[in-house]
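Could you show me some protein's one-letter sequence and the numbers that encode its backbone in two labelled lines?

___
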Amino acid sequence: MPSDELQEIRRVFQGLQTLYQLHLPKINPALIHDLLIREEEEAQKSNTASKSSPPFYMVEISTTKSADPEKMKNLIYKETGLLPSVYENGTHYVANMRLTLELLKVISESEEGVVKVSGDYTGGITGR
């Protein structure tokens, strides 16, 4: 590829990173990117009108010390139907859940003192 094309790829990628930071600032950009790639791959595989289930991720949520652990557990349960494991005196939550961008936005915008959200694809409910 000519150098101009490579520069265009870099410029567009930087713009995407800016959008991640602007709209989902508490979410690890690698998690957003991975989720979007998996959604796109699934959409290409599935030519039917029915949408497949969102992929499973082990999601880690870090909160401030002043956040109410019960409220965060309840938020995660309400949105996913799963109770998270709670660590570090109620400031670190881990749950294996079906993940969507919409769910990431709900978690990051909660009033529960969320500082950072990261995660890894697990493939299925049992993990890998």
